[in-house]
Design brief:
The structure is a homodimer. By secondary structure, chain A is α/β, with parallel strands linked by helices. The first copy, chain A, is built from 22 helices and 16 strands. The longest helix of chain A is centred in the C-terminal third of the chain and has 33 residues. The first copy, chain A, is globular. Chain A starts with a helix and ends with a helix. Chains A, B: This is Alpha-glucuronidase.
Amino acid sequence: MKRYLFILLFLCLQVRAEDGYKLWMSYSKIEDPKTLNFYKPRLQAIVWEDKDLEVAVEEVKLAIPKLLGITPKKGGKNGLILKVNPHINITNPEGYKVSVSGQSITIEAPRSVGVLYGVFHLLRCIQTGQEPAGEFSPKIQHRMLNHWDNNNGTIERGYAGMSLWKWYELPERLDPRYKDYARANASLGINATVINNVNASARFLSSEYLVKVKALADVFRPYGIKVYLSVNFASPRILGKLPDADPLKPEVQKWWKEKADEIYSLIPDFGGFLVKANSEGEPGPMDYGRTHVDGANMLAKALKPHGGMVFWRAFVYAPDPKGDRFKAAYEEFKPYDGQFDDNVIIQVKNGPIDFMPREPISPLFTAMEKTPLAMEFQVTQEYLGWATHWVYLASMFEECLKTDTRVKNRKTTLSEILQGKTFGYRHTAITGVANTGSDRNWTGHPMGQANWYALGRLAWDPDLGAKEIAQEWISQTLSRDSKTGSDIQSMMLSTREIYVNYTSPFGLHHVMGEGHHFGPEPWVEKAPRPDWTALYYHKADEKGIGFDRTNTGSNALAQYPKEFSAPFSSLETCPEEFLLWFHHVPWDRKLKNGDIFWEAFVKKFYQGVKEVEGLQRDWEKVKGKVPQETFENVSARLKTQHKEAIWWRDACVLYFQTFSKKALPAGLKAPERTLEEVKKIVDVYHIR
Amino acid sequence: MKRYLFILLFLCLQVRAEDGYKLWMSYSKIEDPKTLNFYKPRLQAIVWEDKDLEVAVEEVKLAIPKLLGITPKKGGKNGLILKVNPHINITNPEGYKVSVSGQSITIEAPRSVGVLYGVFHLLRCIQTGQEPAGEFSPKIQHRMLNHWDNNNGTIERGYAGMSLWKWYELPERLDPRYKDYARANASLGINATVINNVNASARFLSSEYLVKVKALADVFRPYGIKVYLSVNFASPRILGKLPDADPLKPEVQKWWKEKADEIYSLIPDFGGFLVKANSEGEPGPMDYGRTHVDGANMLAKALKPHGGMVFWRAFVYAPDPKGDRFKAAYEEFKPYDGQFDDNVIIQVKNGPIDFMPREPISPLFTAMEKTPLAMEFQVTQEYLGWATHWVYLASMFEECLKTDTRVKNRKTTLSEILQGKTFGYRHTAITGVANTGSDRNWTGHPMGQANWYALGRLAWDPDLGAKEIAQEWISQTLSRDSKTGSDIQSMMLSTREIYVNYTSPFGLHHVMGEGHHFGPEPWVEKAPRPDWTALYYHKADEKGIGFDRTNTGSNALAQYPKEFSAPFSSLETCPEEFLLWFHHVPWDRKLKNGDIFWEAFVKKFYQGVKEVEGLQRDWEKVKGKVPQETFENVSARLKTQHKEAIWWRDACVLYFQTFSKKALPAGLKAPERTLEEVKKIVDVYHIR
């Protein structure tokens, strides 16, 4: 019998530990004696009274037996004390305080969700070998995921299966996964989710669907997560059968007001609307000669009585072959600064183009002094290798958040601006376009889980570092062995620059496959829009490569504070990783290391491929030290990544060589295929 | 420690047993003493020598400890003896013999896959409390799944997530699920899989994708499963850059020949091609003035040297508003009988239209004497309630297979024809359009697993009954308690007729939502094609309803043997469940039970709804007797089914009442909504 039990136990652990479903909440057993000594005596009991603390208590009951091998009793004087205390003095109503005294740990917060956050903090501390104590408050109010999920279950730019939301089963069936989704987000402090694509179907606003949305909201509510909807601006026409959706028409305003009333009657804590208007063919107020302000404020007024918010996206650009898409958002939105209602946030992508592997910050963040801006990061790897390339995005998020904008001519990080410190924002928000899907492990690439994790942690505290977040995540997932942990951490921290090296060195951008955004296609000269080609961006010719955005070119740099743009404006002082963003760089320009640009450029692609090989070697070393299924999964994906890194290298080097007409740097082996052969690969992916 | 083990064991069993991933291969512990007494002594050891038996042995090693609580030793004289014996005398090379003697059970087969089938037979016997013995051979050669999976991961008419095949991970990463898919199929005897949609992308024939296909084939091979591809007939143009794909042009023939050579160099046991040509906009030989024979035989010649097959679909119909789609396949294919090459099979859907909840058999099955025909069933519930309605399809498959076609003016079941007995087919095949997807439980609806199971079992032996298959399946999944088992079996066997009652009584057909095929939309009068409307089929007017296919109408009945069609030809003798398939039935026509047609028709819809309520009540009774997660999952889906049954009832009754202009039968409560209100529901599902 005992032997049989062990077999089962073994099978059970195997199944449970390895498929990635449990994310950073697998709560595997703590081995460190110091941690056990500290926590075991203090977690023999759970003490609570408030009924709202049910999910927090449930999490403790799930986690502690697994982590510490003990089953906390209920009640008593000592142990884990959970308390909702509306009178507690704290920076943010969602914050919490943790204190340790004698045989007890007390988590206290003005709201039950704060206690839940405190519990997750405690569980994180147990797993990272830290002692919990202090006051913790989120630095950002709205910590949000954007799901680009369609009503047919597909996910735009999703690489991990179908939508998590099973629309045809809702509202009757609640997939158990909805709750695990909420737990995962709450564990990070994410408190808002936009459940449908910004290219929005009006279907979601129908009464038929709102009861489905309500069912999700009911699951998420105990975890402090508000539901938002992306809305189709033409809904009054599509659903309401009005002749149009002109925001200045009373009947249109009435339709939205009544729709808002209907939503709030079902979902009293509904978050609000996210809107992509007059962008990439989506309807918007400009269809009727109105403005973003007219559109956003109309929606804001419908939501206002209920406390709802409008997130209005600044991702807009006009298809002008001679223009500079870089400048579009600023040009369209800057004039409206100060004109938006007080429950409107303008949601801005981190860079001026579109989630490239490396972008300079969007100038809007430095320019909108009277309008709160939300940061939109992309967690799904649309331009960063989908779910087969290992890219730890926290490095990129951190680079962006820690950028010194020089606003007010002093050190002003973008993080500070987002926290509202610089311009006194009424609302603060950080959002991420989710990388989740119905794949068993949620994110396709096992290491993609770390990007969801990092987005959540940075939304709570944008001053955290990619390095510490990686360590936290590793301790809760792959290994608590310090050597293994630091090896994996080093790999993670290297991945983003490696990806940049073999796809977009020196600020090369927008040279990926047209439409699907898979693989390299720097030769794209025709697309449904001129600003969807590659040539629009890299402007390679026999002299050089890159987009001159200085005052001799599009002068996009003028949109930044002068103190920020100054170094970028000159070829001499421009940080080399941003060169092609701002300059048309001559092929034979000498760089700091003495190489001419062409040679340095080519070397980066080769370096990137070599670095992937290094990743492969380093990953082999953790074999046996991380769950086997994860090990194999990552190993296999690294093979794909290596194959595709060579593809990128060959495509870019061979293609740009047709302009530079220069030989490869000495010592580099020429690609084993011709440009024509490389071009054929991406052709396959254009076949419908 | 022991307590901790028990907790873990409990969690472990919960996780393992309930999410449905393991299908009918969860191998839960046998409790029946008689079964244990018989098998335990005989399964103390496994004896084998042949290396090809690795996967069969692996399955035994996985299953026996779970089923019987013993771990078989390797080798010895007694125990489970597995043998490949090429000289064994057996009906079919894929068959096997099982014999019991003393303390041994011997499974012997001419090929290793036969031994594997024998092992799965043994495991099924253990779980159904039977003793294994005898000779077992499949009655059908090609036992096949058709996956309508697209290259972007979506599944046409799929309701259980994304495609199982992760094209962007292949060939480097092999999802562990591929192997479990192969195991599940092998356990049923399925030996062929067409992995991509019949609306085929040429992409799959590119060299880039063929190595991915090869990777899948390598996983499936040990399980006796051959891979097939659906091919786009225009591939020589799309991929090969030829000016066209005219099958009579030598360069087109050469392209296909070389492509076949390329495929077989990668996949030596590649199965062949499935082709949807000149159907619903797909390219085909008729684009160049050629025929189905020209097209099919050209492909057949390319595959012939390698032993590959062409499955050429007869699902063709021309958009003629005055025509009868019923007759199209026969009219197009009958003239070619005898002209196809000997490695071509014509694949025919079970009915003449398109997988309706109840169809008469396709007349082609009775008419093609010199051409082997494959049966195409649909396992995914495109027209049968997607993944939210519980419909056990084996009832429908059985009804079809046991239909007495009266071919040769004697009792000739369709099953016999498919087995090749009637016309002496060179090849025999039964295929099913798969209902599998990436959902954790594979099929969305937990009870949908039984449909995959049944398709496989019937493809092996089309003379099996829905009832016995249900019992087998239940014993291996939900319960081995005989009362619970027979309760669930009764429910399963009732479900198909219930679905017919509330959606398509008396042979009503093609009245579902236009395009998406969701919910009722009997009022559809405009669609991209006239034969995609509902009015084309039901032809309701003030006199009556139904499509006259007798000699006063389209005379489609003339396509059947006279002895078969005779009873259908007269309103007096036509089986009532097929009335509207063949007659325009007056609303006030008296039926056998004395009701006029209108009243009987309406009563069926009401009855269907009541029956769903009955299912709900009956399902409640198995609470605690089946895995809890499955119980809740099915309960919730039954709620949805009930809601939608009422929707169907209200839609059809209110709409057809506008023609009959008659009151509802006494005692029936009128729908609580108006026709306009019901129409709005399906409108929502048309919003993009």
